[in-house]
Amino acid sequence: MSYLIRVLLPDVPGSLGQLAEAIGLVDGNIESVDVVEAFDDGTVMDDIVVSLPKGAMADSLITAADTIDGVEVDSIRPFSGRVDRRGQIEVLAEVASQARDIPRAMESLVNVTPQTMTASWAVVLDDTGEGTPVSRVAGSMAAPEDDGTAPVDINVTGARMLNAETEEWIPESWGLL
Q: How far are the Cα atoms of 155, 170, 172 from residue 175, in angstroms, in the given order?
């Protein structure tokens, strides 16, 4: 079974190698590594897709990570997406082919994003202008429901991760996932 483990680790040479070795010692096979974010404090957040042999417990990955100084496991969850990034071009071509039907194109985009970007869910928001409430255009199947609020001036100018701890406008249910 494959798992997506999000870890915070020191952004220094060798730290990812140490973590990879620890994962290998519990028979984990690393399928992909994506840098999520680098922080000013000298740490980096990585998403690592790891497959474990049948019968192995996901907890073994947490235990392995705990053996490395400075490594913290942020989350771990089953992963059923693809790690072959070549499919992303096909996805972009599919979305582009629907350019005349923006709502349909956005539905296509959010439904494939979790499989191609190691994300849990995705939403597309319409922020039509300053002082105008934001509305949801499309959401993937796993995206949380809206909470009925309509925030204004959210300062999201492009595709990016949301941080519920630092962005007050994000609905509470979105921060739980």
A: 17, 7, 5
Q: In a 3-state reduction of DSSP, which class is residue 164?
A: coil
Pick 137 or 115 by higher pLDDT.
Answer: 137
Q: Are residues 119 and 171 in the same domain?
A: yes
Whether 116 shows a pLDDT value over 80: the answer reads no
Token code pair at residue 154? 């959210």
Phi, psi angle pair for 8, to nearest 5°: -105, 125
pTM of the model: 0.60
Q: Which residues contact 64 (CB under 8 A, 6 or more apart)?
A: 19, 22, 23, 25, 26, 28
Domain coverage including residue 147: 87-175
Looking at the fold, whether 95 and 50 belong to one and the same domain comes out as no
Pick the closest to residue 72 from 64, 81, 80 (CA basis). 64
Q: Are residues 70 and 105 in the same domain?
A: no
Cβ count within 10 A of residue 150:
12
Is residue 115 within a helix (H) or strand (E), and if so which, with residue range? helix 102-116
